[in-house]
Automatic annotation (TrEMBL):
Residues 2-63 form the Thioredoxin-like fold domain. Coiled coil: none annotated. It comes from Caldinitratiruptor microaerophilus. Pfam families: Thioredoxin_3. This is Thioredoxin-like fold domain-containing protein. Transmembrane segments: none annotated. InterPro entries: Thioredoxin-like_fold (IPR012336), Thioredoxin-like_sf (IPR036249).
Length: 72
C-alpha cells in the first residue's frame, strides 16, 4: 500500500486506496481478494493485480507493463 500511495502523491493520474475486504465483501469477491494486501492496477480496460507485499522494483515493473499494454 505504501508504494501505491507514494505513486499517487507524485502523479495525479494514479490513485491509491485502501479498502477493508471484510467491510466490502462484494468488492472483495469482484476482485478475487483472497490475501492482503492485494494491489490492483487498472489502466483503461486492462487490469493487473498481485497479492502480498512485493519489492518496489516489481511494483514499478507492474505499473510500466500496465501503461505499455494500454498504449498498444
Amino acid at each position: 500500500m505504501r508504494m501505491a500511495h507514494m505513486a499517487a502523491m507524485v502523479n495525479p493520474r494514479i490513485r491509491g486506496a485502501m479498502i477493508d475486504a471484510a467491510e466490502f465483501p462484494d468488492y472483495s469477491r469482484e476482485h478475487s481478494v483472497y490475501a492482503v494486501p492485494k494491489t490492483i492496477i487498472k489502466v483503461g480496460d486492462h487490469v493487473h493485480s498481485f497479492e502480498g507485499r512485493v519489492p518496489e522494483s516489481m511494483f514499478i515493473s507492474a505499473l510500466r507493463q500496465a501503461v505499455q499494454h494500454h498504449q498498444h
